[in-house]
Design goal:
With 170 residues, the protein is α+β, with helices and mostly antiparallel strands. It is built from four helices and seven strands. It has a seven-stranded antiparallel β-sheet. The longest helix has 33 residues.
Length: 170
């Protein structure tokens, strides 16, 4: 079972907001291209998103279904990868001080992926998860920085400075 964790320097709420947006799945999941919700309201139980996986010139369309969730803390998914079979992917969010510890646990359920599952496959999953968690951290931390910038107060005018007027010459 491939389990990997990463401390993301933002709140669990910020991480959950990204996980809960099915249109942004491809921003953090390694190997996927554009994603879109296709059933239900992501990430409600039973909802699904569809995304494209590109392997050189080959393009595969896959789906991921929400199998379990606990708002803000746990998202368990079943990734359906055609002839490769299915996999369970659990993403757990734990508050860690002011940050979020993200734990990803993935293992095959059915199909070819389960039949060839071995130490070598585990090593590849670890590499994939390291990259995926790095992408998740980058996107979440960037989202948090952007939100902070939006909330930051504007600098006050200097005392004695003339008020700013729009556009042209006076």
């Amino acid at each position: 079972m491939a389990v990997r964790h990463r401390l993301i320097k933002t709140s669990p709420g910020t991480v959950w907001d990204l996980l809960a947006d099915g249109t942004r799945y491809a921003e953090w999941v390694v190997g996927t291209a554009a994603s879109k919700p296709v059933r239900g309201r992501w990430p409600e139980l039973g909802s699904a998103i569809e995304y494209e996986v590109r392997l050189g010139p080959l393009r595969l369309t896959n789906q991921t279904i929400v199998r379990n969730r606990e708002e803000g803390t746990l998202l368990e998914l079943e990734a359906q990868a055609g002839f490769l079979g299915t996999a369970r992917i659990a993403v757990e969010l734990r508050p860690w001080g002011e940050h979020c510890l993200v734990v990803v646990d993935e293992h095959p359920l059915q199909g070819a992926g389960g039949m060839v599952h071995n130490v070598g496959v585990e090593a590849l999953l670890q590499i994939r998860h390291r990259a995926m968690l790095a992408r998740l951290a980058k996107v979440c931390e960037s989202d948090a920085d952007h939100a902070r910038e939006q909330r930051a107060p504007r600098p006050a005018a200097r005392p004695g400075a003339a008020p700013q007027r729009g556009g042209g010459r006076a």
